[in-house]
Amino acid sequence: MKKIFLIAAVLLFTFSSAQIEFENTRVGIIAGPNYSGVKNAHNPSSKKWGFMAGGFVEIPWNFGYTQDQFYIQPEVMYVSAGENGKKDQKYEANYINVPVWFKAYFSEAENEFFGMIGPRFGFLLSQKVENPQIEGYLPENFGKAAPFDFAIGAGLGFSYKRQLELSLRYEMGLSNAYPDLDKDFVGTGDANALKNKKQQIISLALSYTFE
């Protein structure tokens, strides 16, 4: 118990000593391809290529012992996601995603690697199903995607002069992306049919930050 209180005290002191510098906020644009799928849904299925594009703000989050190393980076992204079937089936879901990244450069150098982690909030824009494996996968039956999708994300990237950046990201869904499919509604006997449908997205993002 004492160790827990000690760790909590250290974290509280650390974050209380941090300063969020809204006056030094910068904005940027970001785009790139993604590779998505939904675990336990639309069986049999395979991953789908898509794309994303949007903008972000980069807010410095400086501590007393460092400068230009820690940031909060909220983004607003259009994301084309979903998955494909084994043949000509398509299960497309398009979102406005709002990730909030906690971003840390490995040093204060201009050209440097960085890591990022944070929650992602997804809002369904549209959905398209083509040639479903079974009729139950149609949105008007059981295949309607959830209007909200929550995930946790992490990434690794490289920055060139703190302006042009390339990052590889992974987002793991925590909410049920297709709640009405969360039952063995067609009697397939598939053990995965009763499990929650978790969306997973891998993306490669190229971003440019304006001075």
Task: Describe the overall structure.
26% of the residues are buried. The chain is built from one helix and ten strands. It has one domain (21-209): Porin. Residues 1-17 have low confidence and may be disordered. Strands 2-4-5-6-7-8-9-10 form an eight-stranded antiparallel barrel. Helices cover 7% and strands 56% of the residues. It has 211 residues and is mostly beta strands. The N and C termini lie far apart (47 Å).
Chain-averaged pLDDT: 87
Total strands: the figure is: 10
Q: State Rg.
A: 20 Å
Please indicate the count of domains. 1
Low-confidence stretches: 1-17
CATH topology: Porin
The main β sheet shows up as: 8 strands, antiparallel, barrel
- Helix percentage: under 10%
Can you name the CATH architecture?
Beta Barrel
Report the principal-axis shape. Answer: elongated
In the CATH scheme, the class would be Mainly Beta
Task: Figure out the total of helices.
Answer: 1
Strand content: over 45%
What attributes characterize this protein structure?
211 residues; mainly beta; Porin; 7% helix; elongated; disordered N terminus
